Recover the amino acids of this structure.
């Protein structure tokens, strides 16, 4: 105890006395002197020097704090959980952050990686939020960490909550566009309301193209997050029709691509993808978003197949037909014309037909007005269809463009 007391007394006399003697020197000389004395001092004295430096306002002490961070990193294996080393690491990280000392970002990340202590890890991440502005690798590292924590949470494992919370706040400070997807994942993951609120706040701090960020989530994130991102975009009162069209097109593309990998998803995720596909089809139809015509055709074929197997409802099939009719493209007309050809062939052989679906298909072909449907619409007049079907065919024939 006597030795510790003596060390503390030496630290105080060295720190405060030394600081007073340097008042007249320029800032660089002050920092250099602190660094020189830090290199020579014991661990106890190093900590006191840092505290003294932190109280000064006449010099930029970033280089000293970075030096202290490197010391903590280099000695973590040797000194282990030494409480004074921990205090030094936390203080140095906090002060580097306050000083927004960008040159310390690599050492701060090494500090985060080199310690298991949550106080140290949180302090390092918080400092990166202040010191890492404009440094792409900082956002990339923090994004990767948050993504790993989100994955842990979704799997039922316990994430590092203190570091997780600090990471969410730091990413909000940085405001880098690359963080939108991972912050959105945190927002919809099911964390506590307070943590979700922090994620929402950080999302609001992201700079750049909000529509583009949502499209990135829709394209790359898990199915449930795709749906949440799409819903968020559709609910945005500032989005114009072009924004909604782009989102619906992106959602349809993502849902179709993921549907082809259905074995990789749970039943809940498969249902989310199906609902996303149906919702985006309704939006594409409402906007007559012709750019998505190939996607609308693929959706139609999928729903047609599902309807034949009893896996899709009649209402869903009618919506898919209506979506094709709104596309105004030759490929949409060809897809519907081929379907009408198939129905005609079945009817000719005496098979039953659904009048609602047939009339909807004929009406969509009339809306498209493509002459590719001519032969199949004309054929209807010679088959055993109802008067309603034949009237619909005559009306659509008159709408064809030549």
């Amino acid at each position: 105890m006597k030795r510790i007391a003596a060390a503390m007394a030496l630290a105080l006399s060295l720190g405060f006395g030394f600081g007073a003697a340097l008042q007249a020197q320029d800032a660089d000389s002050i920092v250099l002197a602190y660094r020189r004395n830090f290199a020579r001092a014991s661990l106890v004295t190093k900590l006191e020097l840092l505290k003294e430096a932190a109280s000064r306002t006449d010099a930029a002490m970033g280089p000293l704090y970075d030096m202290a961070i490197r010391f903590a990193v280099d000695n973590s294996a040797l000194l282990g959980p030494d409480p004074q080393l921990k205090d030094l690491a936390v203080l140095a990280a906090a002060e580097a952050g306050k000083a927004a000392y960008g040159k310390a970002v690599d050492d701060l990340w090494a500090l985060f990686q080199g310690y298991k202590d949550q106080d140290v890890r949180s302090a390092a991440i918080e400092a990166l939020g202040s010191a890492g502005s404009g440094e792409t690798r900082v956002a990339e590292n923090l994004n990767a960490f948050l993504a790993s924590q989100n994955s842990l949470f979704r799997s039922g494992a316990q994430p590092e909550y203190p570091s997780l919370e600090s990471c969410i706040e730091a990413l909000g400070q940085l405001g880098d566009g690359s963080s939108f997807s991972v912050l959105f994942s945190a927002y919809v993951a099911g964390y506590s309301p307070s943590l979700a609120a922090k994620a929402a706040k950080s999302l609001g701090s992201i700079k750049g193209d909000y529509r583009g960020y949502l499209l990135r989530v829709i394209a790359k994130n898990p199915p449930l997050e795709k749906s949440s991102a799409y819903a968020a975009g559709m609910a945005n009162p500032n989005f114009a029709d072009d924004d909604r069209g782009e989102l619906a097109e992106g959602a349809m593309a993502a849902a179709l691509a993921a549907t082809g990998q259905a074995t990789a998803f749970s039943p809940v995720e498969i249902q989310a993808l199906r609902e996303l596909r149906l919702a985006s089809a309704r939006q594409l139809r409402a906007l007559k978003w012709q750019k998505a015509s190939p996607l609308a055709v693929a959706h139609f074929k999928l729903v047609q197949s599902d309807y034949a197997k009893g896996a899709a409802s009649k209402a869903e099939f009618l919506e898919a037909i209506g979506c094709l009719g709104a596309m105004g493209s030759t490929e949409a007309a060809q897809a519907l014309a081929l379907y009408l050809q198939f129905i005609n062939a079945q009817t000719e052989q005496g098979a039953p037909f659904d009048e609602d679906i047939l009339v909807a298909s004929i009406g969509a072909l009339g809306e498209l007005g493509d002459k590719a449907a001519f032969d199949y619409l004309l054929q209807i007049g010679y088959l055993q269809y109802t008067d309603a079907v034949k009237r619909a065919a005559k009306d659509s024939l008159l709408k064809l463009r030549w």
